[in-house]
Specification:
Order of helices and strands: HHEEHHHHHHEHEHH
Shape: globular
Strand order of the largest sheet: 1-2
Strand content: under 5%
Largest sheet: 2 strands, antiparallel
Number of strands: 4
Amino acid sequence: MLRSKYTLFIVVISCTIWFFTSCGKDRNLVTIIPSDTAALGRLLFFDPSLSNPVGQSCASCHSPETGFSDPSHRVVSEGAVKGLFSNRNAPSIAYSMFSFPLQMDPTDSSYSGGFFLDGHANSLEEQARLPFLNKLEMNNTNPSMLMAKLKAAPYYAVFKQVYGVQSDPDKVVGYMTEAIAAFERSPLVNPFSSKFDYYLKGQATLTDQEMRGFRLFKDVKKGNCAACHIAEPDSASGKILFTDFTYDNIGVPKNTANPFYSLPAAFNPAGASFTDDGLGGFLKASDYAGQFKVPSLRNAAVSAPYFHNGFFSTLEEVVHFYNKRDVESFPPAEIPATVNHREMGNLKLTPQEEKDIVAFMKTLTDGYKN
Protein backbone atom coordinates (compact mmCIF):
# COMPACT_ATOMS: atom_id res chain seq x y z
CA MET A 1 0.00 0.00 0.00
CA LEU A 2 2.85 2.37 0.88
CA ARG A 3 4.50 1.62 -2.48
CA SER A 4 1.24 2.44 -4.32
CA LYS A 5 0.87 5.80 -2.59
CA TYR A 6 4.51 6.64 -3.24
CA THR A 7 4.07 5.80 -6.93
CA LEU A 8 1.01 8.02 -7.13
CA PHE A 9 2.92 10.84 -5.46
CA ILE A 10 5.68 10.62 -8.09
CA VAL A 11 3.16 10.52 -10.96
CA VAL A 12 1.20 13.52 -9.60
CA ILE A 13 4.37 15.57 -9.15
CA SER A 14 5.41 14.69 -12.71
CA CYS A 15 2.01 15.73 -14.03
CA THR A 16 2.19 18.98 -12.08
CA ILE A 17 5.50 19.76 -13.79
CA TRP A 18 3.89 18.89 -17.16
CA PHE A 19 1.10 21.38 -16.48
CA PHE A 20 3.54 24.16 -15.67
CA THR A 21 5.44 23.56 -18.92
CA SER A 22 2.45 22.96 -21.21
CA CYS A 23 -0.22 25.26 -19.77
CA GLY A 24 1.86 27.65 -17.74
CA LYS A 25 -1.00 29.96 -16.77
CA ASP A 26 -2.17 28.50 -13.48
CA ARG A 27 0.40 28.96 -10.75
CA ASN A 28 -1.84 27.34 -8.11
CA LEU A 29 -1.07 23.82 -9.30
CA VAL A 30 1.90 23.60 -6.97
CA THR A 31 -0.19 22.34 -4.03
CA ILE A 32 -1.41 19.06 -5.57
CA ILE A 33 -2.27 16.60 -2.77
CA PRO A 34 -0.95 13.03 -3.35
CA SER A 35 -3.54 10.21 -3.46
CA ASP A 36 -6.47 12.60 -3.24
CA THR A 37 -9.25 12.28 -5.82
CA ALA A 38 -9.30 16.08 -5.87
CA ALA A 39 -5.71 16.02 -7.15
CA LEU A 40 -6.83 14.08 -10.21
CA GLY A 41 -9.81 16.39 -10.59
CA ARG A 42 -7.48 19.36 -10.63
CA LEU A 43 -5.42 17.87 -13.43
CA LEU A 44 -8.59 17.20 -15.41
CA PHE A 45 -9.95 20.69 -14.74
CA PHE A 46 -6.91 22.42 -16.21
CA ASP A 47 -6.29 20.03 -19.12
CA PRO A 48 -6.89 21.70 -22.53
CA SER A 49 -6.51 18.40 -24.40
CA LEU A 50 -9.94 17.15 -23.32
CA SER A 51 -11.88 19.27 -25.84
CA ASN A 52 -12.57 18.74 -29.56
CA PRO A 53 -10.49 20.26 -31.06
CA VAL A 54 -7.95 20.49 -28.27
CA GLY A 55 -7.37 23.85 -26.65
CA GLN A 56 -10.19 24.34 -24.15
CA SER A 57 -10.22 23.22 -20.53
CA CYS A 58 -12.74 23.79 -17.76
CA ALA A 59 -10.45 26.60 -16.60
CA SER A 60 -10.74 28.32 -19.99
CA CYS A 61 -14.15 29.57 -18.84
CA HIS A 62 -13.71 29.17 -15.08
CA SER A 63 -10.34 30.57 -14.08
CA PRO A 64 -9.06 30.95 -10.50
CA GLU A 65 -7.88 34.47 -11.31
CA THR A 66 -11.48 35.62 -11.84
CA GLY A 67 -13.21 33.68 -9.09
CA PHE A 68 -13.57 30.67 -11.40
CA SER A 69 -15.44 32.67 -14.05
CA ASP A 70 -14.40 33.63 -17.60
CA PRO A 71 -10.83 35.00 -17.45
CA SER A 72 -11.44 37.20 -20.50
CA HIS A 73 -14.65 38.71 -19.06
CA ARG A 74 -16.58 37.86 -22.21
CA VAL A 75 -20.36 38.30 -22.44
CA VAL A 76 -20.50 34.59 -23.28
CA SER A 77 -17.55 32.24 -23.66
CA GLU A 78 -16.39 30.88 -26.98
CA GLY A 79 -16.43 27.10 -27.28
CA ALA A 80 -13.68 24.76 -28.43
CA VAL A 81 -14.87 25.28 -32.01
CA LYS A 82 -13.89 28.79 -33.05
CA GLY A 83 -16.90 31.01 -33.68
CA LEU A 84 -19.37 28.97 -31.60
CA PHE A 85 -20.77 30.41 -28.38
CA SER A 86 -23.20 29.26 -25.73
CA ASN A 87 -26.10 31.55 -24.92
CA ARG A 88 -25.19 32.39 -21.30
CA ASN A 89 -22.44 34.12 -19.40
CA ALA A 90 -20.07 31.69 -17.66
CA PRO A 91 -20.81 32.13 -13.94
CA SER A 92 -18.34 31.67 -11.14
CA ILE A 93 -18.30 28.08 -9.95
CA ALA A 94 -16.55 28.94 -6.70
CA TYR A 95 -18.73 27.95 -3.73
CA SER A 96 -21.17 26.11 -6.01
CA MET A 97 -20.49 23.01 -3.90
CA PHE A 98 -22.90 24.37 -1.30
CA SER A 99 -25.92 24.11 -3.58
CA PHE A 100 -28.27 21.12 -3.51
CA PRO A 101 -30.68 19.35 -5.90
CA LEU A 102 -33.44 21.51 -7.33
CA GLN A 103 -36.48 21.56 -5.08
CA MET A 104 -39.79 23.39 -4.79
CA ASP A 105 -41.06 25.00 -1.61
CA PRO A 106 -44.73 23.94 -1.44
CA THR A 107 -45.64 26.95 0.72
CA ASP A 108 -45.06 29.45 -2.08
CA SER A 109 -44.19 27.27 -5.11
CA SER A 110 -40.73 28.85 -5.35
CA TYR A 111 -37.68 26.86 -6.42
CA SER A 112 -34.18 26.70 -4.96
CA GLY A 113 -31.02 24.67 -5.46
CA GLY A 114 -29.91 22.97 -8.61
CA PHE A 115 -26.80 23.70 -10.67
CA PHE A 116 -26.25 25.93 -13.69
CA LEU A 117 -28.14 29.21 -13.92
CA ASP A 118 -31.41 27.45 -14.71
CA GLY A 119 -31.06 24.51 -12.31
CA HIS A 120 -30.99 21.83 -15.00
CA ALA A 121 -28.37 19.73 -13.19
CA ASN A 122 -28.72 18.29 -9.71
CA SER A 123 -25.11 17.70 -8.71
CA LEU A 124 -21.59 19.03 -9.18
CA GLU A 125 -20.80 15.83 -11.04
CA GLU A 126 -23.56 16.41 -13.58
CA GLN A 127 -22.57 20.06 -13.89
CA ALA A 128 -19.00 18.96 -14.67
CA ARG A 129 -20.05 16.34 -17.22
CA LEU A 130 -22.38 18.25 -19.51
CA PRO A 131 -19.92 20.82 -20.97
CA PHE A 132 -17.63 18.02 -22.20
CA LEU A 133 -20.37 16.79 -24.55
CA ASN A 134 -21.95 20.13 -25.47
CA LYS A 135 -21.34 21.15 -29.11
CA LEU A 136 -21.11 24.81 -28.11
CA GLU A 137 -18.61 24.12 -25.35
CA MET A 138 -15.99 21.34 -25.32
CA ASN A 139 -17.64 19.50 -28.22
CA ASN A 140 -16.73 15.86 -27.60
CA THR A 141 -19.07 13.80 -29.74
CA ASN A 142 -19.49 10.96 -27.23
CA PRO A 143 -17.98 9.44 -24.06
CA SER A 144 -15.68 7.20 -26.14
CA MET A 145 -13.94 10.24 -27.62
CA LEU A 146 -13.45 11.73 -24.18
CA MET A 147 -12.12 8.44 -22.79
CA ALA A 148 -9.58 8.23 -25.63
CA LYS A 149 -8.36 11.74 -24.82
CA LEU A 150 -7.98 10.85 -21.16
CA LYS A 151 -5.98 7.70 -21.98
CA ALA A 152 -3.60 9.81 -24.08
CA ALA A 153 -3.05 12.32 -21.28
CA PRO A 154 0.31 12.37 -19.44
CA TYR A 155 -1.49 11.88 -16.12
CA TYR A 156 -3.55 8.83 -17.15
CA ALA A 157 -1.49 6.80 -14.67
CA VAL A 158 -2.97 8.95 -11.91
CA PHE A 159 -6.47 8.05 -13.09
CA LYS A 160 -5.58 4.34 -13.03
CA GLN A 161 -4.14 4.66 -9.54
CA VAL A 162 -7.36 6.23 -8.28
CA TYR A 163 -9.97 4.25 -10.27
CA GLY A 164 -8.16 1.26 -11.73
CA VAL A 165 -8.17 0.17 -15.36
CA GLN A 166 -11.53 0.97 -16.92
CA SER A 167 -12.92 0.24 -20.40
CA ASP A 168 -16.54 1.41 -20.21
CA PRO A 169 -16.65 4.97 -21.62
CA ASP A 170 -19.67 5.97 -19.55
CA LYS A 171 -18.03 4.78 -16.35
CA VAL A 172 -14.78 6.53 -17.25
CA VAL A 173 -16.57 9.83 -17.84
CA GLY A 174 -18.44 9.31 -14.59
CA TYR A 175 -15.18 8.86 -12.72
CA MET A 176 -13.68 11.91 -14.45
CA THR A 177 -16.54 14.13 -13.41
CA GLU A 178 -16.49 12.65 -9.90
CA ALA A 179 -12.86 13.71 -9.62
CA ILE A 180 -13.54 17.20 -11.01
CA ALA A 181 -16.37 17.60 -8.50
CA ALA A 182 -13.98 16.56 -5.72
CA PHE A 183 -11.62 19.33 -6.82
CA GLU A 184 -14.54 21.79 -6.92
CA ARG A 185 -15.34 20.82 -3.32
CA SER A 186 -11.78 21.48 -2.20
CA PRO A 187 -10.60 24.58 -0.30
CA LEU A 188 -8.76 25.65 -3.46
CA VAL A 189 -12.12 26.51 -5.04
CA ASN A 190 -13.85 27.50 -1.79
CA PRO A 191 -11.14 29.27 0.23
CA PHE A 192 -13.18 31.81 2.24
CA SER A 193 -10.15 34.08 2.11
CA SER A 194 -11.68 37.50 1.45
CA LYS A 195 -11.22 40.65 3.50
CA PHE A 196 -14.73 40.07 4.81
CA ASP A 197 -13.72 36.62 6.08
CA TYR A 198 -10.70 38.10 7.85
CA TYR A 199 -13.01 40.76 9.30
CA LEU A 200 -15.26 38.04 10.70
CA LYS A 201 -12.24 36.47 12.38
CA GLY A 202 -11.16 39.81 13.84
CA GLN A 203 -8.06 39.89 11.62
CA ALA A 204 -9.06 42.80 9.36
CA THR A 205 -10.96 46.06 9.76
CA LEU A 206 -13.53 47.30 7.29
CA THR A 207 -13.17 50.95 6.29
CA ASP A 208 -15.92 53.37 7.24
CA GLN A 209 -17.27 53.19 3.68
CA GLU A 210 -17.17 49.38 3.59
CA MET A 211 -18.98 49.24 6.93
CA ARG A 212 -21.64 51.69 5.73
CA GLY A 213 -22.07 49.51 2.67
CA PHE A 214 -22.42 46.39 4.80
CA ARG A 215 -25.18 48.03 6.85
CA LEU A 216 -26.99 49.19 3.72
CA PHE A 217 -26.59 45.70 2.24
CA LYS A 218 -28.47 44.20 5.19
CA ASP A 219 -30.98 47.01 5.84
CA VAL A 220 -34.46 45.85 4.75
CA LYS A 221 -35.49 49.49 4.29
CA LYS A 222 -32.48 50.39 2.14
CA GLY A 223 -30.46 48.04 -0.10
CA ASN A 224 -32.10 44.87 1.24
CA CYS A 225 -29.51 42.89 -0.75
CA ALA A 226 -29.34 40.29 2.01
CA ALA A 227 -32.94 39.26 1.32
CA CYS A 228 -31.51 36.96 -1.37
CA HIS A 229 -27.74 37.28 -0.87
CA ILE A 230 -27.86 36.01 2.69
CA ALA A 231 -25.29 37.63 4.99
CA GLU A 232 -25.78 35.20 7.86
CA PRO A 233 -24.27 31.71 8.28
CA ASP A 234 -26.00 29.06 6.20
CA SER A 235 -27.81 26.52 8.38
CA ALA A 236 -26.32 23.54 6.53
CA SER A 237 -22.68 24.65 6.22
CA GLY A 238 -22.28 27.32 8.89
CA LYS A 239 -20.73 29.56 6.21
CA ILE A 240 -21.86 32.94 4.90
CA LEU A 241 -22.49 32.21 1.23
CA PHE A 242 -24.23 35.41 0.04
CA THR A 243 -26.96 33.46 -1.74
CA ASP A 244 -30.16 31.70 -0.78
CA PHE A 245 -29.99 29.50 -3.93
CA THR A 246 -33.42 30.72 -5.08
CA TYR A 247 -34.48 31.94 -8.54
CA ASP A 248 -35.67 35.37 -9.61
CA ASN A 249 -36.37 37.53 -12.64
CA ILE A 250 -34.82 40.90 -11.85
CA GLY A 251 -35.70 42.41 -15.21
CA VAL A 252 -32.37 42.22 -17.01
CA PRO A 253 -32.69 43.55 -20.56
CA LYS A 254 -31.88 41.45 -23.60
CA ASN A 255 -28.20 41.72 -24.52
CA THR A 256 -28.10 42.26 -28.26
CA ALA A 257 -24.29 41.99 -28.14
CA ASN A 258 -24.57 38.28 -27.35
CA PRO A 259 -22.85 36.43 -30.25
CA PHE A 260 -25.20 33.47 -29.72
CA TYR A 261 -27.84 35.39 -31.69
CA SER A 262 -25.68 35.24 -34.81
CA LEU A 263 -25.04 31.49 -34.77
CA PRO A 264 -26.27 29.29 -37.63
CA ALA A 265 -29.79 27.94 -37.36
CA ALA A 266 -28.42 24.50 -36.49
CA PHE A 267 -27.39 25.94 -33.12
CA ASN A 268 -29.90 28.77 -32.69
CA PRO A 269 -33.03 28.30 -34.81
CA ALA A 270 -34.63 31.46 -33.36
CA GLY A 271 -31.76 33.73 -34.35
CA ALA A 272 -32.00 37.29 -33.00
CA SER A 273 -35.52 36.60 -31.66
CA PHE A 274 -34.19 34.02 -29.17
CA THR A 275 -35.27 34.63 -25.58
CA ASP A 276 -33.77 32.87 -22.57
CA ASP A 277 -36.54 31.58 -20.31
CA GLY A 278 -34.12 30.35 -17.62
CA LEU A 279 -35.75 28.18 -14.98
CA GLY A 280 -39.07 28.47 -16.80
CA GLY A 281 -37.51 27.03 -19.93
CA PHE A 282 -36.11 24.06 -18.03
CA LEU A 283 -39.37 23.43 -16.19
CA LYS A 284 -41.45 24.27 -19.27
CA ALA A 285 -43.53 26.51 -17.01
CA SER A 286 -44.27 30.11 -17.97
CA ASP A 287 -44.72 31.20 -14.33
CA TYR A 288 -40.96 30.83 -13.90
CA ALA A 289 -39.90 32.28 -17.25
CA GLY A 290 -36.94 34.62 -16.97
CA GLN A 291 -35.94 33.40 -13.52
CA PHE A 292 -32.28 32.61 -12.93
CA LYS A 293 -30.44 31.30 -9.91
CA VAL A 294 -29.33 33.88 -7.36
CA PRO A 295 -25.51 33.74 -7.47
CA SER A 296 -23.15 34.05 -4.56
CA LEU A 297 -21.64 37.52 -4.44
CA ARG A 298 -18.29 36.13 -3.39
CA ASN A 299 -15.67 37.25 -5.94
CA ALA A 300 -18.29 39.39 -7.71
CA ALA A 301 -15.76 42.22 -8.08
CA VAL A 302 -13.53 40.09 -10.33
CA SER A 303 -16.15 38.10 -12.26
CA ALA A 304 -17.66 40.69 -14.63
CA PRO A 305 -19.76 40.90 -16.74
CA TYR A 306 -22.91 40.27 -14.76
CA PHE A 307 -26.22 38.41 -14.98
CA HIS A 308 -27.07 35.47 -17.21
CA ASN A 309 -26.37 37.40 -20.41
CA GLY A 310 -23.52 39.64 -19.27
CA PHE A 311 -25.59 42.78 -19.84
CA PHE A 312 -23.78 44.92 -17.25
CA SER A 313 -20.02 45.35 -17.09
CA THR A 314 -19.46 46.85 -13.63
CA LEU A 315 -20.76 46.45 -10.10
CA GLU A 316 -21.63 50.14 -10.15
CA GLU A 317 -24.01 49.55 -13.05
CA VAL A 318 -25.52 46.53 -11.32
CA VAL A 319 -26.25 48.34 -8.05
CA HIS A 320 -27.66 51.35 -9.90
CA PHE A 321 -29.94 49.04 -11.89
CA TYR A 322 -31.28 47.43 -8.73
CA ASN A 323 -31.81 50.89 -7.27
CA LYS A 324 -33.34 52.76 -10.25
CA ARG A 325 -34.66 50.13 -12.67
CA ASP A 326 -38.29 51.21 -12.37
CA VAL A 327 -37.74 54.98 -12.25
CA GLU A 328 -35.14 55.53 -14.97
CA SER A 329 -35.08 54.73 -18.66
CA PHE A 330 -33.58 51.26 -18.95
CA PRO A 331 -34.24 48.92 -21.89
CA PRO A 332 -37.21 46.63 -21.25
CA ALA A 333 -36.77 43.31 -19.48
CA GLU A 334 -36.15 40.32 -21.73
CA ILE A 335 -39.05 38.53 -20.00
CA PRO A 336 -41.34 41.28 -18.63
CA ALA A 337 -44.22 39.18 -17.26
CA THR A 338 -42.44 37.72 -14.24
CA VAL A 339 -40.16 40.60 -13.19
CA ASN A 340 -39.76 41.09 -9.42
CA HIS A 341 -41.13 44.59 -8.68
CA ARG A 342 -41.57 43.97 -4.95
CA GLU A 343 -37.97 43.95 -3.73
CA MET A 344 -36.06 46.09 -6.21
CA GLY A 345 -36.34 48.74 -8.87
CA ASN A 346 -36.92 51.83 -6.71
CA LEU A 347 -34.80 51.51 -3.58
CA LYS A 348 -34.29 55.27 -3.16
CA LEU A 349 -30.58 54.88 -2.49
CA THR A 350 -28.43 57.99 -2.90
CA PRO A 351 -25.43 57.94 -5.27
CA GLN A 352 -23.16 57.76 -2.22
CA GLU A 353 -25.10 54.81 -0.80
CA GLU A 354 -24.71 52.98 -4.10
CA LYS A 355 -20.95 53.55 -3.89
CA ASP A 356 -20.89 52.31 -0.31
CA ILE A 357 -22.62 49.04 -1.25
CA VAL A 358 -20.14 48.49 -4.08
CA ALA A 359 -17.27 49.15 -1.67
CA PHE A 360 -18.61 46.43 0.63
CA MET A 361 -19.06 43.96 -2.21
CA LYS A 362 -15.40 44.41 -3.11
CA THR A 363 -14.46 43.02 0.31
CA LEU A 364 -15.79 39.62 -0.84
CA THR A 365 -12.89 38.90 -3.20
CA ASP A 366 -10.77 35.91 -2.18
CA GLY A 367 -7.00 36.18 -1.77
CA TYR A 368 -6.94 39.14 0.64
CA LYS A 369 -3.54 39.92 2.12
CA ASN A 370 -3.70 41.63 5.49
